[in-house]
Amino acid sequence: MSCGAGSRCVAGTESRLSRLGLKILFQPPYSPQINPIERLWKHLKQDLKWGLFEDLDALRNTVQKILPKLSRKVISSLTGWKFIVDAVCIAGI
Prior knowledge:
Layout: H1 7-19, H2 36-48, H3 56-66, H4 72-79, H5 82-91
């Protein structure tokens, strides 16, 4: 576990999310093709690919200006995959 607390970390997180009506869905390791954040990064990099940044702070500032411009619809289209939603519904999760 990334938090270093082993299963306690996940158990505590799962119980908090459960109270909110949410459930953790684990994905297979080393599967960037189904990791929604990869698609979001790909979208962000389209705005950044020709940029020349003086340093990491300049890049960070540019990203911080781009992120608020992303609409809920754009984020949903990049991170919400129908096949995952369908599988979750079929599984009754």
